[in-house]
Amino acid sequence: MPDTPTPGPLPPTPTNHSISQHGMPQLILLSSKTSTYTTSSKRIFLLGPSHHLYLPTCALPLPSLKTYSTPLGPIALDTSTLSTLRSTNEFSALPLEADEAEHSLEMHLPYIRHLLSQSPSSTPKNDFQGLIPILIGSTTPSTERKYGNLLAPYLSDPENIFIVSSDFCHWGTRFGYTYYLPTSSSPPDLSSGISLHPKTHKTPPTDPAIHDSIGTLDRACMEAIESGSHERFLKVLRETGNT
After folding, report:
1. Which of 61, 65, 173, 198 has the most CB atoms lying inside 10 A of its own CB?
2. Separation between Cα atoms, residue 210 and residue 215, nearest integer Å
3. Beta bridge partners of 16
4. What local confidence, expressed as pLDDT, does residue 125 receive?
5. From the centroid of its chain, how far is CA 36?
6. Rounded to the nearest 10 degrees, how much is the dihedral formed by the CA atoms of 5, 120, 129, 229?
7. In terms of Cα–Cα distance, which of 106, 234, 60, 90 is closest to 150?
8. Which helix (H) or strand (E) holds 96?
9. 186: which DSSP letter?
């Protein structure tokens, strides 16, 4: 092996799964940030929100699935770790049709497969145990704490990588969310916002522009996530209703 420093545990990395001018560069950046870890790690946990299946819990792929297919080749699932998680009886089974339809996980698979192919020739390919996909449902704070405690030992293991797939804010009348921060104070007063409605706000505000307000909302969520405080993240959601 080359004489290079051994990386410590990589913090869970939130990344966007949209196909857009924002989502794609972020996935590419994630690839460059995690390349050292991916090629030297034994497991990759991929967490993403459910878009097609209502879940009050989290779900795992069916036991019959051994691999996920990508345009670049298959990715093995870590059937042993998945079996251990299933044995807790805390996870629902993810129906195949919902699994195949779910883009929050799918969007990351080609990037993960590409990084796995970059593994140095001196690293045995069988060191990689596989992927652990986890679909996240509409969970309550207490349920989130339960899963946090359950996954904590895996998070602390430097041989594991956690990639958390997420969206930026879904803003607009079709999403039922038009929260707008009328001031750009620093730090922002997240609870000072108003909901914009076409009938009462026919002219889009410009100070700040709507996209700048959305950026502030998203940065507040990301900073809360990076703080590692579950309560801080929930507080931001309570104040803003960010989708």
Report:
1. 61
2. 9
3. 166
4. 52
5. 20
6. 40
7. 90
8. helix 96-101
9. S
3-state secondary structure 148-170: HHHHHHHHCCCCEEEEEEECCCC
pLDDT of residue 183: 78
In the chain, where do the E strands start and end?
A: 13-16, 43-49, 58-61, 67-68, 75-76, 91-94, 130-136, 160-166, 179-180, 194-195
User: 39 with 123: CB under 8 angstroms?
Assistant: yes
Both tokens assigned to 89: 């009886």
Note the pLDDT of residue 130: 94
CA 104 – CA 11 distance, rounded (Å)? 20
List of long-range contacts for 138-144, beta carbons under 8 Å, 24+ apart:
138/50, 138/54, 138/55, 138/56, 139/56, 139/57, 139/58, 140/56, 141/230, 141/234, 143/56, 143/57, 144/230
Structure tokens at 105: 């996980």
Residues in the chain with pLDDT values less than 70: 1-40, 119-126, 184
